[in-house]
Write the structure tokens for this entry.
Amino acid sequence: MTNPTPLHSRHRTVLPDWLALYYKHPIELTHGEGRHVWDADGNRYLDFFGGILTTMTAHALPEVTKAVSEQAGRIIHSSTLYLNRPMIELAERVAALSGIPDARVFFTTSGTEANDTALLLATTYRRSNQILAMRNSYHGRSFSTVSITGNRGWSPTSLSPLQTYYVQGAVRTRGPLAHLDDAAFTAAAVEDLEDVLGQARGGVAALIAEPIQGVGGFTSPPDGLYGAFREVLNRHGILWISDEVQTGWGRTGDNFWGWQAHAQNGPPDILTFAKGIGNGMSIGGVVARAEVMNCLDSNSISTFGGSPVTMAAGVANLAYLLEHDLQGNARRVGGMLLERLRGIAATVPAVREIRGRGLMAGLELTRPGTDEADPDAAAAVLEAAREGGLLLGKGGGYNTSVLRIAPPLSLTVAEAEEGAEILEQALHQVSGIQ
């Protein structure tokens, strides 16, 4: 018998109050196809958020669905205690694509767990609990990843197993360095890094950084900044962890990984990934050179990391992405969409900035004529866009005033134009523009 109580009421009764829901009247998504999803009332939406950048290729992609179904029909679970062909195949492909020499891959079930593992590796390898992180950052919801998150809106406790030092440079257009040109900005951020290291007691384990900050509102530094940081890190023996949970797999268009925009001094020591590789299946992971990955001196397994079903999905999804050049599509369609958004922004005084690259765009809203964030306007535009048939995301530091746009990488030109038009109407509606 169907429970007659509204689903939202049931949600509030049994799930935590802090579990966020979008929209004043939350929607239940029941199915999807391509770049579209449908809710329980039959409304169709163009999906410009893809399950928080997770539906990377397309909803209900036949190749992934087939791989999952066939693997589930053979065996669903075995754990890492047994040889696992799909896991080994995906690890081989990820290692080859990572750019890290002599790479080893460990699979987890989420980006949080991947970053947690990276912190374990770095602190063990360096025998230090000191971590450098970027201001405005987000790295997950576990106890250790929350403790290095530089964004108070997502960090509910000051307790920490780590000693964290926060570094300037991840936000190009706000803060004390915003007035500088790119070269001076980078030089000032490097100077800040040196100063922060002077405050530490020595032996810092690692710097962890998102090449483009996700929850932070798709903010990023000038290209080459983390490469410049790497020179300093190398002098001190400090590892570089590149958090690619949101930037990986070609989403930025220009590069397959976000770190490649900062590659003048080589790849990171550790790379973390998740979200898009599973196209909705629970896959995360860590890539590190063998010396770092093998530094643990105790036994470990993963019960659900590397599940045969999720690994089969990852193999099929990655193959589809590469065979159909979705990175190239992100560059072409994303570039067009960004230009279209900039044209819209010129007509809306509340839009402070359009930023991003590829199919990873942020639209920051402020109170017109000021730099004061306007989270109420962002929430209103989110609602208006949904009413128009478009799903967006939100983010932007502690004030959540940025609309996040990250559709599946197979987005077509026509769909990009359709989404831009709906967003333009929503912005005009909220801003009172006729």
